Amino acid sequence: MKAVLIPGDGIGREIAQSVKAVSKALDTGIEWLEYEAGAEYAAAHGELLQPGLLDEIERCGWALKGPTATPIGKGFRSINVQLRQRFSTYANLRPVSSLPGVPTRFDNVDLVIVRENTEDLYKGIEYMLDDNTANGIKLITRSASLRICRFAFDYARRHGRKKVTAVHKANIMKLTDGLFLSCFREVAAEYPEIEANDVIIDALCMKLVQRPEQFDVLVAPNLYGDIISDLCAGLVGGLGFAPSANIGDKVRIYEAVHGSAPDIAGKNMANPSAILMAFAMMLRDLDHGDAADRLTNAIHSLVQEGTTVTADIGGTATTTEFTDALIARL
């Protein structure tokens, strides 16, 4: 089969090489169609996306991408947001679990964040009222809220999860977050075997850093989902171990959620674990469960042993050395 590979900016090119090497070692049979996108490509060519990229994603239905840089406070909109809205990959799925060998404050984290991916403040509807006042519209619709909540409960049912928690601020934003919460409760009634509750976003952040084990599946509107995803990644050692999938009806885009790390780009120092874990998610969805298990187990055992790991988790291995050691375990 064919799948699109987007290396992206910064360290993206290095970790993309890890994906191709591991894919070959696993004998997945995937033919990678490599396309450029991001700030570096834009600086060289005057456009964010290589011509043909969007058409190829639509044809294949499967894509894996590295990090792409986004200017802060100016410039172009996030490529991630553009791709999610272009292909209506409405569900952002981020599993977060503790890895033996990674030093953290907790060793019992096992969470899944389900983030609505297409609306809320990330819809990008903002404008200047005058020279001194900017305004942004928080767009929440019933259809998108029902869809993402149903996705979360379906995921919980399929994977034996026991509880789904809605994240909101409906005590203040009574119409927008209130609509999201009412949709959640409507959907929850259809899944009586799964416990359902809701938590206000600020209280959730406190509870997550106190006792993360009290949560299972978290479903949230776009902005809150983005924030808590990074918070939860911090519970298990950081974004270097945070894979993600953007899931729509026809297209799935998997990605490492960390940044492009320009300070170490080109130095062969990056930890490729996140994009490889995203690749494992992709393999599982392609019904290559055995290959996904082999890859996941190899990452866990390599990190736990700790002799050939990258600098972000206390080692001295290069990206290439980490990848070679991983392939040896496969």
How would you characterize the overall build of this protein?
The strands form two sheets. A ten-stranded mixed beta sheet has the order 2-1-3-12-11-4-5-10-8-9, sandwiched between helices. A two-stranded antiparallel ribbon has the order 6-7. The mean pLDDT is 95. The two termini are 22 Å apart. The relative contact order is 0.17. The chain has helices at 12-25, 39-45, 53-60, 79-86, 142-158, 176-188, 201-210, 222-235, 273-285, 289-305, 319-329; strands at residues 2-6, 31-34, 62-65, 91-97, 110-116, 126-130, 133-136, 163-168, 195-200, 217-220, 243-247, 252-256. It is an alpha/beta fold. A hairpin with a 2-residue loop joins strand 6 (126-130) and strand 7. It has eleven helices and twelve strands. 40% of the residues lie in helices and 19% in strands. The protein folds into two domains: 1-96 and 239-330, Isopropylmalate Dehydrogenase (3-Layer(aba) Sandwich), CATH 3.40.718.10; 105-235, Isopropylmalate Dehydrogenase, CATH 3.40.718.10.
List the helices and strands and how they pair.
Elements lengths: L1 E5 L5 H14 L5 E4 L4 H7 L7 H8 L1 E4 L13 H8 L4 E7 L12 E7 L9 E5 L2 E4 L5 H17 L4 E6 L7 H13 L6 E6 H10 L6 E4 L1 H14 L7 E5 L4 E5 L16 H13 L3 H17 L13 H11 L1
Parallel strand pairs: 1-2, 1-3, 3-12, 5-10, 8-9, 8-10
Antiparallel strand pairs: 4-5, 4-11, 6-7, 11-12
